[in-house]
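User: Design a sequence. Structure:
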């Protein structure tokens, strides 16, 4: 029987990652190029089509052997119409992405939000493989959220829901990029962690965080964690506060969805057990019903950047 493939495209504001994915959800060929988001949408879509053709050529796979193309995009995607309704970091409004890409490639094209695709990728081939109900936080520049219910992406009405990072953590709190104050994203993102690290560094010139930042050439999401591991009191305050914010957000989502598994992805998830163990303990203590109700396993994402490609490839109409 002839092997069948799918093409997954992870569209980002900086890079476009494209992969040819086989029936076992393995990436057999890949291509990455710069988005250059300042360009017109049609030029970016042209590049996406060329990259899809490139991965087929690399693997010597004919177009007839490909079932579909899936795209994970930032912003709000209408999965039924195939439009990107709003993607701030691309400058896109109402772009008919699926229709235009299908014209260029002659294959069915499906789209969804990039965090949704990352969650679906982890369910197909990663940390949540075999689970029917999973929830993902991507802890990066913002906080993305992906929800898989009964094996399928849940994205709300017109695919505009499931913005987990923009649910309230603290009334009248820190300003969020969405225009609201106190969102989860304003406390649990890498951007928020960097903000709080800088504030603490200003208060404590003796902190080991200064040396850590010099080593990286900047203050990034690792500085406070690195210094906290060395026992620095100021860094420990930053990390403990961050883990409390994240723990509160995780507990809220457990209470709403009670998934089989809760996945933490993005750059901060690279802290591994130093991040996971406190969040697990917080959830065990504060999730509704405590030990009386089954708690989801809380794990780090396994696929890294490949999750978006695999999840996009898995999209269906």
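Assistant: Done.
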């Amino acid at each position: 029987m002839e092997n069948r493939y799918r093409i997954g495209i992870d569209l980002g504001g900086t890079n476009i990652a494209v992969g040819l994915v086989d029936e076992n959800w393995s990436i057999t060929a890949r291509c990455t190029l710069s988005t250059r988001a300042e360009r017109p949408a049609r030029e970016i879509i042209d590049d996406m089509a060329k990259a899809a053709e490139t991965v087929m050529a690399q693997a010597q796979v004919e177009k007839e052997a490909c079932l579909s193309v899936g795209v994970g995009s930032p912003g709000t995607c209408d999965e039924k119409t195939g439009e990107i309704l709003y993607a701030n970091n691309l400058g896109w409004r109402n772009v008919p992405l699926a229709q235009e890409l299908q014209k260029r490639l002659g294959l069915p094209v499906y789209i969804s939000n990039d965090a949704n695709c990352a969650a679906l990728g982890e369910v197909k081939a990663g940390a949540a493989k075999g689970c029917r109900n999973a929830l993902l936080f991507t802890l990066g520049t913002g906080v993305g959220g992906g929800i898989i219910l009964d094996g399928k992406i849940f994205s709300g009405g017109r695919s505009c829901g499931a913005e987990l990072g923009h649910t309230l953590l603290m009334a009248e709190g820190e300003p969020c990029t969405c225009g609201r104050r106190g969102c989860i994203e304003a406390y649990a993102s890498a951007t928020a962690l960097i903000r709080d690290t800088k504030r603490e560094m200003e208060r404590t010139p003796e902190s080991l965080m200064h040396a850590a930042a010099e080593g990286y050439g900047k203050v990034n999401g690792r500085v406070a964690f690195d210094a906290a591991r060395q026992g620095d009191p100021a860094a420990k305050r930053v990390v403990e506060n961050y883990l409390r914010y994240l723990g509160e957000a995780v507990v809220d989502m457990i209470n709403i969805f009670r998934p089989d598994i809760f996945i933490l992805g993005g750059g901060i998830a690279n802290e591994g057990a130093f991040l996971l163990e406190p969040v697990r303990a917080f959830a065990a203590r504060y999730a509704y019903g405590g030990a009386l109700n089954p708690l989801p396993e809380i794990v780090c994402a396994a696929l890294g950047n490949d999750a978006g490609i695999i999840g996009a490839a898995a999209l269906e109409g």
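The chain is about 40% helix and 20% strand. The mean pLDDT is 94.
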